[in-house]
């Protein structure tokens, strides 16, 4: 299984390539989505992952199931070729971290509400609005697809290494 790439890897700084609509249902794209979902499910503190974080320069991100607990229906969790179409003027300073910038956290100013358009894994276009944590996730993951890491925008960066990991070193 692939590992999550860390800051310093060139793929994380590239603008990811759009997935051709005709390729969404391809075995290659579907395998990338499965791999992303598998890797994300193993990260207790992970809420989403973008394809570049595991070495694929493709405009895809996956949001963890736990974000949608209690939501009616079956929400879209796979976002292919996402485009944020609306950002609220109201901004919030939020705590943020990243699976590709392990154990560093900072405060990032993000729009409180967003609207995003994307394709799901079946190639169907959809639109979704979000606020709070989900709005933050949409902005963070879209940044990944544009080669931007949260540390580029964050203030007050700090490192917090969990005790069990510190003890392994």
How would you describe the shape?
Answer: globular
- Find the CATH superfamily: Peptide deformylase
CATH topology: Peptide Deformylase
How far apart are the termini?
Answer: 23 Å
- Count of DSSP H/I helices: 3
Number of structurally distinct domains? 1
CATH architectural type:
Alpha-Beta Complex
How many β strands by DSSP? 8
Question: What's this entry about, in short?
Answer:
Helices cover 21% and strands 30% of the residues.
Give a topology summary.
Blueprint: H1 27-41, E1 48-50, E2 60-63, E3 78-87, E4 91-96, E5 104-111, E6 113-119, E7 125-131, H2 132-145, E8 155-159, H3 163-168
Kindly describe this structure.
It is a single chain. With 169 residues, the chain is α+β, with helices and mostly antiparallel strands. It has a single domain, classed as Peptide Deformylase. It has three helices and eight strands; from the N terminus they run αβββββββαβα. It has helices spanning 27-41, 132-145, 163-168, and strands spanning 48-50, 60-63, 78-87, 91-96, 104-111, 113-119, 125-131, 155-159. It has a five-stranded antiparallel sheet with strand order 1-2-3-6-7. The chain has a three-stranded antiparallel sheet with strand order 4-5-8. Strand 4 and strand 5 form a beta hairpin.
């Amino acid at each position: 299984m692939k590992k999550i790439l860390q800051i310093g890897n060139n793929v994380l700084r590239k603008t990811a390539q759009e997935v051709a609509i005709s390729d969404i249902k391809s075995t290659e794209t579907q395998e990338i989505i499965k791999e992303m979902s598998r890797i994300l499910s193993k990260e207790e503190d992970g809420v989403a992952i973008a394809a570049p974080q595991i070495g694929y320069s493709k405009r895809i991100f996956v949001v963890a199931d736990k974000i949608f607990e209690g939501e009616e229906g079956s929400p879209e969790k796979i976002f292919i070729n996402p485009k944020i179409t609306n950002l609220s003027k109201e901004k919030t300073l939020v705590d943020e971290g990243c699976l590709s910038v392990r154990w560093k956290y900072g405060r990032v100013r993000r729009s409180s509400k967003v609207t995003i358009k994307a394709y799901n894994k079946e190639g169907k276009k959809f639109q979704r609005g979000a606020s709070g944590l989900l709005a933050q996730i949409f902005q963070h993951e879209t940044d990944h697809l544009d080669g931007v890491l949260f540390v580029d925008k964050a203030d007050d960066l700090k490192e917090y290494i969990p005790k069990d990991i510190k003890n392994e070193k």
